[in-house]
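Ticket reopened. Same input as before:
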Amino acid sequence: MRSARSLAPFALLLAIAACEKKKPAEAAAPAGAAAPAAGAQVLLGHVGSLTGNEATFGDSTDKGIRLAVDEQNARGGVKGRQVAVKTYDDQGKQEEAALVTTRLVVEDRVSVLLGEVASKRSLAMAPIADKYQVPMVTPSSTNPKVTKDGDKVRPYVFRVCFIDPFQGTVMAKFARETLKLQKVAVLRDVGNDYSVGLADYFLVKFKELGGEIVDDQSYKAGDSDFKAQLTAIKRKKPEAIYVPGYYTEVALIARQTRELGLTVPLMGGDGWDSAKLYEISRGALEGSYFSNHYSPDDPSPRIVEFVRKYQARHGAVPDSLAAQGYDAARVAMEAMERAPDLSGPAIRDALAATKDFQGVTGVITIDADHNAVKPAVVLKVEGNGGKYVATVQP
Amino acid sequence: MSESLVELLQHLVNGLSVGTIYALIALGYTMVYGVLKLINFAHGDVYMVGAYAGFYLAEYVAPPGRAGQDGVAGVMLRALLVTAGAMAVCGLLGYLIERLAYRPLRSRPRITSLITAIGVSFLLEYGFQLQPWGFMPVPFPPGPSPRFFPELLPRADWSVGGVSISNYDVIGLAVALALMLALQFIVYRTRFGTAMRAVSFDPQVAGLMGIPVNRVISWTFVLGSALAAAAGILNAVPRPQINPLFGLMPGLKAFVAAVLGGIGSVPGAMVGGLALGLAEEFVAAYTVSSLKDAIAFTVLILVLLFRPEGLFGRVTVEKV
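Engineering reply: fixed in the latest deploy. New output:
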């Protein structure tokens, strides 16, 4: 009898917990489906890493988004209503990204989600966007899994950038055909979907083109000592090292590479693009190459115009993440303008129908897998910036 | 020298460089365990605070380029002051942690202190991730973004027969050894050391003999925390990225090092730390590099299975 009585409150608690857990899902499901009240502001939600190891990613993206939204508001907003942006910082943590995404959807009831830059955090957001039927546009997450869950395309998730099979191929081609490299080593971040994916696609393409991968080592984000891996790589005498990570670790890896007396260039992807890369690496990356979405040095008028506007507003040269954030916000707002109403499914259909949109980073057409098909550029590190080397078409 | 020998020696240099850090942190674990039989899980975070203390001292209190830092002597003096300052800050932190968190619970079951240690650890880790408070003269707390530790000494790399060694590696090893010898001297050759060993043997009886138990325990925390601060700076100079969570992993690994060497033993902590640094280096280099973190915990399991008293520990007989 005694045990039964002491169990009762537990059972009650459990029952309450079970009800509580279900509630937000039921209450919020119509939030995405139903249009917000007319006359009110249209709200965009941005999830970004404003602090943490990839702080410049979120910061640049947010600045790009705000520039796009201000321009749209000056033109009269979306459907005659002003657009506002709500940004939450996820500190570069997956669990935090999931938390603030739910908050944006359930509490703030945003019409469209923008973010994240890092694929692993976009992967934490994507199921939430699908569940609540709120369209999500990621500016710069290049891992294929972000928009495609196995064979199934995630209905509410889109991106305005190319994907890693293409980005990895670009660098492999560039290394093999332009730099004429024969032996390359790979050093990847094992805890990062982006890095692992990019390394895999690079590896396959580089071997296919007749090159040799002499070593494949790994590290983990947050590590500060990479000398064990680099010493092992040095012994294999590669002509370059492919390090598709994020800028903080890449810069530290570059310094330790030079400290060990290894002078070959490093190669990487768009995760390198940050002013911090040059600051932390202190010249250790001179002569290295990375693939990117765009180059601010590009003389084409649309880029010159964007760089001028961004500099006037924020006082800095926009990196590619800023340009991608700008494009993502514009694509989202253009779709909202075209959609018959501002409900989740209506915006989703309009986003899926995006065709030949003139973005700063290229012409954006959303394909069947919700990806944008765009060219990539290769930049060479010179001084404190990336110098344009080549454009590679898809 | 043949290439594989050069590679082997390079790994040896790298491994020792990391191992000295583990050894210095492990000393703090071992000393506290010795006197209180408490695993101070906040110790890894004291190491983190040490690196930050050095960072703030070097950036704001003694910024580079200030007068009196010219020449070799000035640079050395600044490095010394920053290190000593950080050790003092952490010594105070160690004292406060013991005084406020552990002492009120000392008569309670040991598990209470252990859980409190984890609480203190979280307090430091997440407290340091808050955004800076406006009223502080320096941006403190530092927030979650990593900071980059300033170069206290100009780096010099030498190549000895193909093996790269830097002045940081040499200084790090020398400072660590000097600190360990100093500690060994304090524990075995001074009155305080004798008191410490007496408290470790039996706190109640030591108290009856007139030994100020509370003061001895406080000083043990101060010493251990100061060593952790030294480790924080020796690590942050060559590997400059510091963030509020970076003490977690080294803290756990140093705990393994202390267990490996025999927890409670000062030379054991040194040997355990160096051995663990080397083991990690060789596993990462000659097998799969993603196993680097796994090796520490594999070592822990093996030690606990086959030699729970560690390399230098004494077998204690449980009296029933």
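Chain A has two domains: 42-162+299-374, 165-292. The mean pLDDT of chain A is 88. Please confirm and we'll close it.
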